[in-house]
Amino acid sequence: MVMKEILQKLIDGQITIEEAERNLKTMQIKEIEDFAKLDMCRDQRTGIPEVIFAESKESDDIIKIIKASLVNGRVMVTRLDKEKYNSIKGNLNLPDEFKMEYNRRAKILLIKSNEVEKKVKIGVITAGTSDIPVAEEARITAEEMGCNALTAYDVGVAGIHRLFSHIRDMIQEDAKVLIVIAGMEGALPSVVAGLVDVPVVGVPTSVGYGVGKGGKTALFTMLQSCAPGIAVVNIDNGFGAGVFAAKIAKQYME
């Protein structure tokens, strides 16, 4: 049972206070054999669904964690490459009410029984096409937290004139936060922050070579930005950017 069902049963007199308390305690953490402990109330407590980080996990373990998480009505699996997705998709045996969506670029698998209502807008901007996988991870994450994401890809400083119409449209559409993703020298978040009056979340990517290899140059540039109003997440951390932006934007929901 989920929390609402337990509380409704208590109101209806179907269970005692002691039974409700016991059920609430046992639903918080679900242990799967000896390898996983799921936080079953994370979504209700924080607004962030329990997310399965697939990298380095065995396919069989991912399947077991997904099945145990279905009680929450939705599951998000991140950093799930195509090969591992192909190895698990035929073995999930999902109930009929669940549908499965896999985004190859973002390496995200969504399994859900209903759609999340999107009540507020954010923007997702990339400097280059190579930054799109990280952007898609951010976009999907924010949308699963109740945001409608407006996107503008490949509008970096190498051709800065490409950026301005997209920035104007996002502000006119009342985007509450802009996620700006860039590799190489990582200058784009500073440019954007100097043009808008909304918070900017900078995401450095590992796109680059030479001194820019691995994303550290982009990270340092964003941390050292002279344009105020930027918060910076870790290299390639689209998920973290999506969560942070959504938490800010959701403060505007009625």
Question: Can you put this structure into words, describing what you see?
Answer:
It contains ten helices and eleven strands. With 254 residues, the protein is an alpha/beta fold. It folds into two domains: 3-112, no CATH class; 120-252, Rossmann fold (3-Layer(aba) Sandwich), CATH 3.40.50.1970. Strand 1 (29-32) and strand 2 form a beta hairpin. Helix 6 packs parallel to helix 10 (238-249). The chain starts with a helix and ends in a 5-residue tail after the last helix. The mean pLDDT is 88.
Helix content: 25-40%
Q: How big is the Rg?
A: 20 Å
The biggest beta sheet, please?
5 strands, parallel
Task: Assign an overall shape.
Answer: globular
* Name of the level-1 CATH class of the largest domain: Alpha Beta
List SSEs in N-to-C order: HHEEHEHEHEEEHEHEHEHEH
Low-confidence stretches: none
Q: What is the CATH-assigned architecture of the largest domain? A: 3-Layer(aba) Sandwich
Number of extended strands: 11
Distance between the termini: 28 Å
Q: What count of structural domains?
A: 2
* Strand line-up in the sheet with most strands: 8-7-9-10-11
**Within the CATH hierarchy, at the fold level, what is the topology of the largest domain?**
Rossmann fold
Provide the β-strand percentage band: 15-25%
| Category by helix and strand content | alpha/beta
Question: Kindly state the mean pLDDT as a whole number?
Answer: 88
Tally of helical runs: 10
